[in-house]
Amino acid sequence: MKFRLSEHLASLIAVADLDVERTEGPPPSLRVDRDDWAAVARIAREAGMRLVAEWAAQEKDGFSVHAAYAQNPNGYALVKTTLNAGVEGFPSLAPHYVAAARMERAIHDLFGLMPLGHPDPRPWIKHEHWPEGAHPLRKDFAADTGMPRGEGRYPFIEAEGEGVYEIPVGPVHAGIIEPGHFRFLAVGEQILNLEERLGYVHKGIEKSMEGRDAFSAARLAARISGDATVAHAWAFCLAAEQAAGLEASPRAATLRAILCERERMANHIGDIGAICNDAAWGFMHMQCQRLREEMARLHRRLFGHRLLMDCVLPGGAARDLDAEGIEALAGQTQAMAREMNELFEMYEDQTSIRERVIDSGAIQSRHARDLGLLGYAGRSAECDIDARRDAAYPPYDRHPPQVKVCKGGDVSARLWIRFQEIQESARLVQKFLAELPAGPLREPWTAPRDGRWGFAAIESWRGEIAAWVRFGAGGKIDRCYARDPSMINWLGLELAVREVPVPDFPLNNKSFNCSYSGHDL
Amino acid sequence: MQRMLRKIIRVGTVTEPPGKADNRIETLGALLDEAIRRRFQGSLAIRQVDAGSCNGCELEIHALNNPYYDIERFGIHFVASPRHADMLLVTGPVSRNMETALRMTYDAVPNPKLVVAAGDCAVRGGEFGCSYALSGKVANVIPVDVAVQGCPPTPADLIQGILTALGLAR
After folding, report:
1. Hey, are the CB atoms on B133 and A226 less than 8 Å from each other?
2. Mutation test of the interface with chain B: which of A128, A223, A275, choosing the one with the most B Cβ atoms within 10 A?
């Protein structure tokens, strides 16, 4: 993990005449005054940094609020501020970073800490039937507290005028997908505004992390978002290993990367098919689902799980590859890349599908940058962000990916990026398999001391995942936070579908394919 | 167009035919086919409800429609509304925020109806355990006919579960 940005940000803060306290790492971190919390965000924003995540934790005496910033090529900077006992507010970052808005609403719901100056004080994860004073991430709130069910109403954004009408959709959607609520304001066929209402699959994952040991927590992290199980488990393990002061062997790191790239390929292939299906091109859907199934079957044979769950463990990986496995994986990866290349050419020639995807749900590059869009959603609108290269965690420190970026920001651009990434992932898998280093599969795990913590960023197929974990007494987790890329990319969908016809919403939604579970935690 | 046709011919049929090989799917498929023909006049409509899953189960339910399993050939199709459904296929530990929606969906399915709880979370809460945010296993919220274990259950497990539920239908 690369943390050079920390020193850069510290010097900018010092130049602005604000107090900053440096803590040597690894990983390094900065501490600033509560009153300067938003001023630091302004400095970071003016310097062109993006906000990675904002989260809170309870301390022995009061609370702390944390933020991570990033900027290529300097990596990441971690900043925190402490709220003394009795202080339950902090200056909001939302005026400087749009992406902070929902993170802070979640902090308010779960900790009862007020983001001061926040433009939208509505609850987010906490639905209207929760009791007023319930703040589950406070230490005095037992994990299994039964909460009485109350009444309430969520005030959606409204519009008035001739011909404006509302379409409420969900939480139970019309397909095999996760639940969430979409409130469309529409005029005729055009979407005037989409407002998302999420939190339906909030499972209390952060609270459930508390008190687990690293192995049990890794199992839970693998289920934050099932389609990105490798990446989430890896992010957690990397953060936990940092706290423990150990590093997975080069062999284990390379195995993790092989799994993660295969996960990227499988999801991209499946989604390309599904997007085409939403534009009524069944041929592509069937071809892609066939390829995806073949990948799942090989994963089961080699790693014991079709989706690769629980293959990444603290200290290393669960299963090794023998020569036969290496050959099978290499052969299939190559075949997938070849077939997807062939399908890509057909896609490019298919005028009826091109007509549907070009210019649909376009996001301007400057808006994508303002939101800090991640993964293919960002890279299709010139946001050159890829944690594999930017955080440079092993084995990508030695084998960085060729990051593809384009402009346009529409469904077509998002599809194009994903077709390209399949080829790049296939190239990386081949390289990793050919050069799989010798070494142990797992390092012996030694539980971190009380108070030790770590932060990691991993590029999942969907975009950058950030994980922060702090251990307490007895090697048990005191607090664990995971920021799925969906936390930010859901904002992109709202923006993309303005003025898109309502029937093209599914096409756009699938082209983003944000995770509900990863967002709601 | 020619390229597409060539590709279709080259790939051929990957669907695993019922009752031919030693694969579990094929045997199950034949049983499923017969049960659906007899009890549901050739057609079973399933409404899938994610009541809080991590979306792993959804990936495997999607796989039922891929060309290998092609569950539609047995007359099973996934429908957009609970009002069109004979069966609910429910995943996830039921989150507190989804409990009402799950009840409403169940009530919207016409009687007689079947409920299959799919996945360890739906069956017994799974990895997420007991939490302020969860109502727990599906049976805590609506009556369940059949439980399908697995994290997530494989497509073959899911077909087995659907088949078991059909065996219960009178």
Report:
1. no
2. A223
